[in-house]
Design brief:
The protein has 94 residues and is α+β, with helices and mostly antiparallel strands. Helix content is 39%, strand content 37%. Helix 1 (19-37) packs across helix 2 (64-81).
Amino acid sequence: MVQVALGLVELHLGEVDSLKGKRHVLRGMKEKVKHRFNVSIAEVDHGDLWQRATLAVVCVANDARLANEVVSKAVNYIESLSDGAVIDVRVEVL
C-alpha cells in the first residue's frame, strides 16, 4: 500500500530584504533537500512576504515508517540549513 508523509516547516528569514533574495535562499535550500533526500519540496505559503516561508516536503513510499523517517530527516536538515528561525514544524503520514 502506498504511504505519503508530509512535513511542513515555517521559517522566518531575517537576513532577507526582498522577494528576490527570498527566492534565492529558498531555491538553494530546496535543491539541497531534494537531491539529498529524493523528496518533493515546494514553498506553499507566505509567497508574498519577504521574511516568511512555509516549505512542504513530501515522500511517497511503500512503508509509512520509511516515509515518515525520510520526511523527518529532511525537515531536520532544513532546520540546520536555515540561518533564520524555525517558527513551526509538523510531520504527518497521510
